[in-house]
Design goal:
about 375 residues, alpha+beta, Phosphorylase Kinase, domain 1, HIT family, subunit A, about 25% helix, globular
């Protein structure tokens, strides 16, 4: 049970995780070995929603060590291969064996993330639902996205608590205090902070007026270059990782609207690295060097989930859930997605000529027939 943190400015909530009561499962990801649950803490509130995420910890190489017995100089370290390992045999067939094993208590921990109270946007984020690709032009950003973000987004209080050293001060990996080009580097909630192989850090800039990629311009190049180089230096010094093995990128749309960069090893399939969501820091810098107002002029694709109010706003502007196809009488009408191809429509002048071409293609000359058949 987390202990409340007393502060003159901030008081963290206190809840007993064992008293969580499940309402429904939001996601169950067998690939990532994680499950997201929606429920309540009834001892605190019957109405406030809570999200609890359980995720199996990644394996550390040190946990599979088979070193010599411990000595006074070298105390015992947790390992799967010791006397505390419990093994139940499922079957053995020739050279193959299948077992269920329970390691020592030190290696059985499961990482848990709690969001309480959780908003509708949090529930949406952790739910499985249909996804749609939005192609956001600068005009659509100004007309639809920006007004929506101004009126509806996650609270940034937790971000300001970090930047003002009110919370998580002990978790800071590196800080550059410059108000224009500085930032704070600290572990993301997705990382347990132990296994360097699964490192996941966030670099949160000190400037408060940059919400996302859309706000970046040539005047921010010094900030971005410092964010890139200082992060690499700090990670190399603290964790011993080669800077050329790191992936550094922005999300669009981001989960919270205060500029931050994601950093993790290239060899890991981290959440949110899909091409329709991630923008490499190197590419962003290069784009701004070529065109200082690139992100005010570019069309940026991003994904929206079913149930997102922003998706409804885009649906009012243009078809998203349904697609437009051409009918035989050349009028556009709405039609649900179908595996049937849209009917081709031509003008009267084109019809006869195109029909002739189709007949000719459909009935090749005898000497060409075999070649056409082979190609088909």
């Amino acid at each position: 049970m987390p202990e409340p943190v007393e502060s003159a400015e901030v008081k963290s909530p206190s809840y007993d995780l064992s008293k969580f009561r499940l309402k429904r499962i939001l996601t169950n990801n067998s690939v990532r070995k994680s499950i997201s649950l929606l429920g309540t803490f009834p001892d605190l509130s019957e109405t406030d929603d809570a999200i609890v995420v359980f995720e199996k910890n990644a394996y550390r190489e040190s946990d599979v060590a088979t070193a010599e017995p411990p000595t006074k100089e070298s105390p015992k370290k947790p390992s799967y291969f010791n006397a505390e390992l419990k093994v139940a045999t499922e079957f053995i067939n020739n050279i193959y064996g299948s077992f269920q094993v329970v390691p020592s208590r030190d290696l059985c921990a499961v990482k848990s993330t709690v969001i309480y109270p959780a908003t509708d946007k949090h529930i949406e984020k952790y739910s499985v639902c249909q996804k749609y690709l939005i192609r956001e032009t600068p005009d659509l950003y100004q007309k639809i996205t920006k007004p929506y973000l101004t009126s509806s987004q996650f609270s940034l209080d937790w971000v300001y608590n970090i930047l003002d050293h009110k919370q998580e001060k002990e978790r800071i990996v590196f800080e550059d205090e410059d108000p224009e080009t500085g930032f704070i580097l600290l572990p993301d909630l997705k990382w347990d902070g132990r296994n360097v192989e699964n490192l996941y850090l966030l670099g949160i800039v000190h400037k408060h007026d940059i919400k996302s990629l859309r706000d970046l311009n040539g005047s921010h190049l010094d900030l971005l270059r410092n964010l890139r180089q200082s992060s690499k230096d700090a990670i190399s010094k603290r964790y011993g990782l080669n800077p050329n093995q790191l992936r550094m990128y922005f999300h669009y749309q981001p989960s919270f609207y205060h500029l931050h960069v994601h950093i993790n090893p290239v060899k890991n399939d981290a959440p949110g690295i899909w091409c329709e969501k991630s923008h490499m820091l190197d590419t962003v810098i290069n784009n701004l060097e070529l065109l200082p107002d690139y992100y005010q002029r570019a069309t940026l694709p991003f994904v929206l989930y079913e149930g997102n109010k922003l998706l409804d706003l885009y649906e009012e502007e243009q078809p998203i859930r349904k697609v437009l196809v051409l009918s035989d009488d050349k009028e556009q009408r709405e039609k649900k997605p179908s595996t049937t191809a849209a009917t081709e429509v031509f003008s009267d002048e084109e019809s006869e000529e195109r029909q002739c071409k189709r007949i000719k293609l459909a009935t090749p000359e005898p000497k060409e027939a075999e070649a056409v058949k082979a190609c088909a």
